[in-house]
């Protein structure tokens, strides 16, 4: 299947649970001919807890909803100004493994930030993307019938305060950052184009 056979959808701002349900509906109904999709979306404020998430990583009670999910990882925050990229891919058909997908996601962010002369890196023991020991991108995936759900969350220009109410991704004291700290002019359309291109370009030609 050629790399170009990926449907990219710009979904705008949506409640988390609506998108969560739509991902699962898409995966349940897809068949061997269904094209893979990338969904670009922002969420209204929400904490999401991974399937093995520990409740003690929510440090204080707030009026922000906490949603239990089936993705990997611990608790994180989603809100306006954060770019979510969900990948709904048939890994069996593309003959790629989950570790490959994690690397593709991390690399797509690292390469995007590099475009803006921001040096970022990944960690083998803590998925995501970091700048100077601060986390700028979280990721979590779920595999169902050989297909991926969920994806990454890149902090672009957002209120980072809610991250103080949790141990982000289960790490006490982990500081979060966003692109606004490093570049003055934010072009969301350009960032989205870079993210998707950088991800798709890594996919093997099967």
Automatic annotation (TrEMBL):
Coiled-coil region: none
Keywords, sorted A to Z: Acyltransferase, Cytoplasm, Transferase
Pathway listed: Protein modification; protein lipoylation via endogenous pathway; protein N(6)-(lipoyl)lysine from octanoyl-[acyl-carrier-protein]: step 1/2
EC numbers: 2.3.1.181
Domain (BPL/LPL catalytic) ranges: 32-206
Gene3D superfamilies: Bira Bifunctional Protein, Domain 2
Active site annotation, chain numbering: 169 (acyl-thioester intermediate)
Chief location category: cytoplasm
SUPFAM superfamilies referenced in this protein's UniProt entry, alphabetically: Class II aaRS and biotin synthetases (SSF55681)
Entry binding sites for substrate: 71-78, 138-140, 151-153
Gene Ontology BP annotations: protein lipoylation
Localization, UniProt: Cytoplasm
Entry keyword Transferase: yes
Enzyme class (EC, first level): transferase
Site label Lowers pKa of active site Cys, positions: 135
GO cellular-component term (any): cytoplasm
Catalytic activity from the UniProt record: octanoyl-[ACP] + L-lysyl-[protein] = N(6)-octanoyl-L-lysyl-[protein] + holo-[ACP] + H(+)
InterPro entries: aa-tRNA-synth_II/BPL/LPL, BPL_LPL_catalytic, Octanoyltransferase, Octanoyltransferase_CS
HAMAP family per record: LipB (MF_00013)
Protein's job: Catalyzes the transfer of endogenously produced octanoic acid from octanoyl-acyl-carrier-protein onto the lipoyl domains of lipoate-dependent enzymes. Lipoyl-ACP can also act as a substrate although octanoyl-ACP is likely to be the physiological substrate.
Misc. comment: In the reaction, the free carboxyl group of octanoic acid is attached via an amide linkage to the epsilon-amino group of a specific lysine residue of lipoyl domains of lipoate-dependent enzymes.
NCBIfam families membership: lipB, PRK14342.1
Matches recorded under PANTHER family: LIPOYLTRANSFERASE 2, MITOCHONDRIAL-RELATED (PTHR10993:SF7), OCTANOYLTRANSFERASE (PTHR10993)
Name of the protein this chain belongs to: Octanoyltransferase
